[in-house]
Every structure is written in C-alpha cells, then in structure tokens.
Description:
Elements: E1 2-9, E2 12-14, E3 17-21, H1 22-30, H2 41-52, E4 59-65, E5 68-81, E6 85-86, E7 89-90, E8 101-107, H3 118-124, E9 131-136, E10 138-151, E11 154-173
Antiparallel strand pairs: 1-2, 1-11, 3-5, 3-10, 4-5, 4-10, 5-8, 6-7, 8-9, 10-11
Helix pairs in contact: 1-2
Amino acid sequence: VQLIDTGSVNGELFIFNAGIGADADALYGVQKPGCAKDGHGTIVYLRQATQTLPKSRGVAAELTIDGERFSTPKLYQLWANNGRRLARFPVTAGKIDDGKTEIILAFANKMSELVFPSAVTLVLRRNSRDCMFITASELEVALGRKRRAQLDGDPMPLADHFLMKINPGSLRIRVPSVENTIYSKPAI
C-alpha cells in the first residue's frame, strides 16, 4: 500500500494532472462535463485540438505560487503535473508522493508563438521567455477573462479564478511489489 498525493482545483479533486487554458478548450470539445467518456481517446482529442488550439488566445493573469505573486499579460496554458508524464509524454522527474506538483506555464498570445523554440524548451524542460517550470504545493490564478480547466481529462466549467492545492499523502492505493521510481517514500 502506498500513500500518494491528490490535488484539488476549486474543491474538485485530481490525481495526475490539471490544466487551465488552451488544452482544456480542446478537451471540452471532446468531453462535456457530466457526460460519459466516449472511448475515442487520442485521435478525437487531436482532431479537436487542431481546430481549437489555433483559436485559443493568451489571457492576462495574476498568479500566486506558494505565496509568491507575479503577473503575465499572456498566459496561454498552465499544466499542473503530479507525476512523470503529461499527455503520455515524459516531462518531469516528479514524484507522486512528495507533497508538490510541477507547474508548467506557457506564455503566448496565440499558438503559433509557441511552436518553436518553445516546443524545444518544453521537451528539454528549460525555462525560457515562453515556458516556465515551477514546483509548488499551492497555486492561485486570477484571470482577465473566464477560461476552461480540466482535471485528469475531465472538463470544469468556465471560471476566472482557480485555487489549486496539493493534498499530501491523501490517497491510499495498492501498488505492485516491484520497485517503482515514481515514489519518494517507502510503501506502508
């Protein structure tokens, strides 16, 4: 048995990831709140993303990350990642039981500004003027206009304020008895 962290955004729980912005817009076109998942997965999401992401725009945002405040005129996407993968791609060396989440911020007015070199910095996990990586346990986001969010692939309603918290060791799960590198603490 292993204790892992969960997160919450505006009181709604997530285990692996949360997103605010462009990817939540694309996800909303695939999966409406309260509807059963249709099982089409990646192909349907990619089709919707090609239609939605070019239309998404960055928005002014005030962020408070573990008590530190900063603002940006163009928050395009925010991901909070509680594991090692984001959309099936390895992006972090994070642990699922360390009381923190990795936050990835993408700054742009539109998607075309992020294609290059931001894609390279995202893959290499390097901070740049377009991408920023932060590890934190609490995040507050106040936006200049309402945006969508998603929690583990489930859409949330439009909002202009999001409060995300990590709840350390709040979920007890059974794990295989093989060594696993996603944990920082021993099993109980």
